Amino acid sequence: QVQLVESGGGLVQAGGSLRLSCAASGRIFSINDMGWYRQAPGKQRELVAIITSGDSTNYADSVKGRFTISRDNAKNTVYLQMNSLKPEDTAVYYCNFPIALVAWGQGTLVTVSS
Question: How far apart, in whole angstroms, are the C-alpha atoms of residue 78 and residue 102?
Answer without folding.
Answer: 15
